[in-house]
Design goal:
single chain, alpha+beta, Four Helix Bundle (Hemerythrin (Met), subunit A), Nonspecific Lipid-transfer Protein, Chain A, 2 domains, 4-stranded mixed β-sheet, two-stranded antiparallel ribbon, 9 helices, about 10% strand
Length: about 280
Amino acid sequence: MAFSAKLRIMKNKDAMTQLLDDLKDEQDYLDGALADIDLDTWENKSPADGWLLRDCISHLADVDETAAHVATKKEMPVRAPSDQTNTPKDTLQNDRQRQARNLSIPELLAWWRRVRKEQNDALRKLDAKDRLPWAGPPMSVRSFATARLMECWSHGLDALDAAKITPVDSDRLLHVAHLGVITRGFAYQNRGLDVPTTEIRVELISPSGDIWEWGDPEAKNRITGSASEFCRVVTRRLHLDDTQIKSEGKSASEYLKIAQAFAGPPGPDRQPKNH
């Protein structure tokens, strides 16, 4: 799918350097936004089923630590399997996230800050086209870093919601929007559906007011609207009915209902708020 929007490349920066700078900036933004909340707020429930605010950050720390190992060693870490008979029946993803509930908030934040720096430093030493193992087929370093930015932003939305902080979107969302467009095939395969070959045109208005475009301008199937809303839809953080995103054509409408820019099985949708 053709893509005409341009990454925000600063002077003397290439696209990969800009991506990694944007990843760090997104992490730093979330860290800073949560810096002044009180300790009780960290125990607030988040929109993620069964997760507290603190769990959103422990998840990021856990996966960033795994990503740092992968980026450094070019292999997945080997971890002892859980004792399934003693594993709590909850929605937390693993024992590391459960154990993180025993950390103080300063300890939790120190863990996240340390491992995300290790991850980012390791990624900067790699070529954008290098392949890294992950929880599915190997990924290019570029795709790997984009996925980490998407995860930070989307889980950050849940954390900010739990803290009752209104998120401030930036043009770093270009990376998330692009991921949402190019994972169309995955969204169908993930649900056991045939992948359509119909071309879709996507036109989004960025947080700064720029127009981001993908696909044939003459395509009959079209998606238009706010990049902020589109990114929330493809990360399953906002129900389509709560947006002003417009679609034309059956394929475009169908995709918006199943879009999923992250790995893993389809999860429960957020329920519409305004309908």
